[in-house]
Specification:
It contains one helix and five strands, in the order ββββαβ. The protein is mainly beta. A hairpin with a 6-residue loop joins strand 1 and strand 2. The longest helix has 8 residues.
Length: 71
């Protein structure tokens, strides 16, 4: 996730990092922790992901445990 400043105070342009291959793409649209680190602003919008699967691609669910848990 890249954050660009604008001429407006506390107004940012958020550009996601997109991971793309023959199956489609995935990106994390927003990450609260990264946003706070990059802007110093404290908000509460935890995370938003987007994915697109190409025709015939079947995506599976995943689960992570521990400090880096994400599901």
């Amino acid at each position: 996730m890249k954050i660009k400043t604008t001429q407006l105070k506390d107004c940012y342009i958020i550009e996601p990092t997109v991971f793309e291959d023959d199956r489609g793409y995935f990106y994390e649209k927003f990450n609260e922790q990264k946003f706070q680190q990059l802007t110093g602003m404290n908000g509460h919008f935890v995370q938003d992901n987007v994915s697109k699967s190409s025709y015939g691609v079947l995506r599976g669910l995943h689960l992570q445990k521990g400090d880096m848990a994400q599901a």
